[in-house]
Amino acid sequence: MKISGSGTLSEGKINDELRVSGSARIRGNFECNGFHSSGSLRGAGNLTVHGDIVSSGSFRLVGNLYGDGNLRSSGSTSVDGEVSIKGNLHSSGSFRAGNKVEAHDGIKISGSARVQGELLTLETVDISGSSTINGNVTGTDVFIGRERLFDRSVYKHPNKIYGTILARNNVELISTLVDGDVKGLDVKIGRGTEVLGIVYYVDNIEVHDKAKLVYNPIQIKEEDLHY
């Protein structure tokens, strides 16, 4: 189904991909086999997509967003509820979620993001843009911040995590505020990072002299690394 002008959809299900290049509204819960929008879409309910979700325009959803493929967002995406993706999520634009964000195959944020809940994946979390996460961040590896951000940004902490960071393997943080604990196998606390909780590590710990830890790091056993 293609909408290239202005259109309104009632709640329901279509066995087709929804493609929007104009302006569209969805009045309630909607289900489709793939979603691609380069225009403006407003949804008043939940959106379930069987396939990939691609948005390069303006996308605003009042409910929850569910997808069994990948999500690519390079425009402005705002979801009032939760986001649950079975593939991977990559946002290079503006991304907002009013609840948790889960993407099984990895999360990459190179734009700006604000999440009012936890951020979790079974693979890698890679945040190189600016973000505020009001919940725990969980992944196999967690990389937040880039050295160039510290050099050029006018903000002290471009990334703020109001929760605990949990990684099965590596944690690397640069110019990040963590209002909680940090737990990982190997942990690197880079320049400009401030951790208000406790840093727990299994094998290795590295702390930059321009980082700030409120408490001394604690070494734990791998079986104590709750994930």
Structure description:
The protein has 227 residues and is an all-beta fold. It has a domain of 115 residues. 3% of the residues lie in helices and 52% in strands. It is built from one helix and 34 strands. The longest helix is centred in the middle third of the chain and has 6 residues. About 3% of the residues have low confidence.
Give the proportion of residues in helices.
Answer: under 10%
Q: Describe the global form.
A: elongated
Q: Provide mean pLDDT, rounded.
A: 94
What is the distance, rounded to the nearest whole angstrom, between the alpha carbons of the first and last residues?
A: 42 Å
Question: Spans of 5+ residues with little confidence (pLDDT < 50)?
Answer: 149-154
Rg, please?
19 Å
What structural class do you assign from the helix and strand content?
A: mainly beta
Strand content: over 45%
User: How many helical stretches?
Assistant: 1
Question: What profile does the largest beta sheet have?
Answer: 22 strands, parallel
Number of strands: 34
In short:
Helix content is 3%, strand content 52%. It is mainly beta and 227 residues long.
Protein traits:
mainly beta; 1 helix; 227 residues; 52% strand; 12-stranded parallel β-sheet
Task: Spell out the blueprint of helices and strands.
Layout: E1 2-3, E2 6-9, E3 12-13, E4 18-20, E5 23-26, E6 30-32, E7 35-37, E8 40-43, E9 47-49, E10 53-55, E11 58-61, E12 65-67, E13 71-73, E14 76-79, E15 83-85, E16 89-91, E17 94-97, E18 101-103, E19 107-109, E20 112-115, E21 119-120, E22 124-127, E23 130-133, E24 137-139, E25 141-144, H1 147-152, E26 159-161, E27 165-167, E28 170-173, E29 176-178, E30 182-189, E31 194-195, E32 199-207, E33 212-213, E34 218-219
Parallel strand pairs: 1-4, 2-5, 3-6, 4-7, 5-8, 6-9, 7-10, 8-11, 9-12, 10-13, 11-14, 12-15, 13-16, 14-17, 15-18, 16-19, 17-20, 18-21, 19-22, 20-23, 21-24, 22-25, 23-26, 24-27, 25-28, 26-29, 27-30, 28-30, 29-31, 30-32, 31-33, 32-34
